[in-house]
C-alpha cells in the first residue's frame, strides 16, 4: 500500500467561478482533496474550505486529489438530490485534458475496458473482465517531444478511470505516481490531468449550465 503524503496547496485557497443560492462551482487545484478522509490530517479539503465560508455547502461528486479542474457543490437538499441524480444517470457531460506519454497511433477512439479494485494494492484500480463497465472517448489535440495532449470524455465515472484507461493503452498520464514508473512520475511536477469542462442542468431553474476552466499544461494545442 502506498503512503499518502498530503500537503494541500495554500494558494489559491479557493478559486470560486460561480455561486448562487443553489450551487457553487470552483476550479479545484491539484493536490487538494475533494472531501475529508478518515485521518485528521485530511480535514483540509475543497469541501471544508467552502464550508468555512458557506456552511450549507454539500459535496455531490469528487475529483482525485491530484486532478485539478471544475467541481460543482450543492447548497441545499433539493440541489444535492438533483445533481447527484444527474451524475448517477450520466446526464452530466465532463471533458478532461491530459498530457500523456508517447504519441497515440489513432487521432481519436474509444476505450472500453472494465475496471475493478486492485485488492492487493488499494486504492489502485485495474482492468478486469469481471469489473464494472468503463468507457472513455479520446481525441488527440497535439503531439510534441514524445508526449501528447489528449481530450478525454468519460461516459462512465469509475474510480481512476482515465488514469487506468490511458495506462492500459500504453500512454500513461504524465506525473501519475499511482500507475506510472519513475520516468512517468519524474516527467511532471503533478498529475497532468485537468477537468476542463462540466455541463449539467441547474437544479432549480432547469437551465443548461456549462463551466470551463482552461487546462494549465504547456504543450500547444492545435
Compose a concise summary of this entry.
This protein is of the alpha+beta class and 222 residues long.
Give the helix/strand layout.
Elements: E1 16-19, E2 23-28, H1 46-53, E3 58-59, E4 68-74, H2 77-88, E5 93-101, E6 108-112, E7 115-117, E8 125-127, E9 135-144, E10 147-154, H3 161-168, H4 182-186, E11 193-201, E12 208-212
Parallel strand pairs: 4-11
Antiparallel strand pairs: 1-2, 2-4, 3-4, 5-10, 5-11, 6-9, 7-8, 9-10, 11-12
Describe the protein in words.
By secondary structure, the protein is of the alpha+beta class. It has a single domain (about 15-210), classed as 2-Layer Sandwich (Pseudouridine synthase), CATH 3.30.2350. About 15% of the residues lie in helices and about 30% in strands. The chain contains four helices and twelve strands; from the N terminus they run E-E-H-E-E-H-E-E-E-E-E-E-H-H-E-E. It has helices spanning about 45-55, 75-90, 160-170, 180-185; strands spanning about 15-20, 25-30, 60, 70-75, 95-100, 110, 115, 125, 135-145, 145-155, 195-200, 210. Strands 1, 2, 3, 4, 5, 6, 9, 10, 11 and 12 form a ten-stranded mixed beta sheet that branches. A hairpin with a 2-residue loop joins strand 9 (about 135-145) and strand 10 (about 145-155). The longest helix is centred in the middle third of the chain and has 12 residues, at about 75-90. The N and C termini lie far apart (about 40 Å). It catalyses: uridine(746) in 23S rRNA = pseudouridine(746) in 23S rRNA; uridine(32) in tRNA = pseudouridine(32) in tRNA; a uridine in RNA = a pseudouridine in RNA. Belongs to the pseudouridine synthase RluA family. This is Pseudouridine synthase.
Amino acid at each position: 500500500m502506498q503512503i499518502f503524503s498530503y500537503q494541500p496547496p495554500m494558494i489559491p485557497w479557493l478559486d470560486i467561478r460561480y455561486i448562487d443560492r443553489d450551487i457553487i462551482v470552483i476550479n479545484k487545484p491539484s493536490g487538494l482533496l475533494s472531501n475529508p478522509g478518515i485521518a485528521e490530517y485530511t480535514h483540509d479539503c475543497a469541501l471544508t474550505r467552502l464550508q468555512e465560508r458557506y456552511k450549507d455547502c454539500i459535496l455531490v461528486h469528487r475529483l482525485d486529489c491530484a486532478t485539478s479542474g471544475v467541481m460543482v457543490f450543492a447548497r441545499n437538499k433539493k440541489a444535492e438530490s438533483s445533481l447527484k441524480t444527474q451524475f448517477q444517470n450520466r446526464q452530466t457531460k465532463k471533458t478532461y485534458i491530459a498530457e500523456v506519454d508517447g504519441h497515440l497511433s489513432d487521432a481519436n477512439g474509444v476505450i472500453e475496458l472494465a475496471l475493478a479494485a486492485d485488492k492487493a494494492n488499494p486504492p489502485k484500480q485495474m482492468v478486469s473482465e469481471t469489473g464494472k463497465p468503463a468507457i472513455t472517448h479520446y481525441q488527440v489535440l497535439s503531439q510534441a517531444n514524445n508526449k501528447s495532449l489528449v481530450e478525454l470524455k468519460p461516459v462512465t465515472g469509475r474510480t481512476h478511470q482515465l488514469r487506468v484507461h490511458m495506462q492500459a493503452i500504453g500512454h500513461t498520464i504524465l506525473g501519475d505516481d499511482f500507475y506510472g514508473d519513475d520516468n512517468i512520475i519524474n516527467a511532471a511536477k503533478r498529475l497532468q490531468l485537468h477537468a476542463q469542462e462540466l455541463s449539467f442542468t441547474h437544479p432549480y431553474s432547469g437551465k443548461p449550465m456549462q463551466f470551463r476552466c482552461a487546462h494549465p499544461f504547456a504543450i500547444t494545442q492545435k
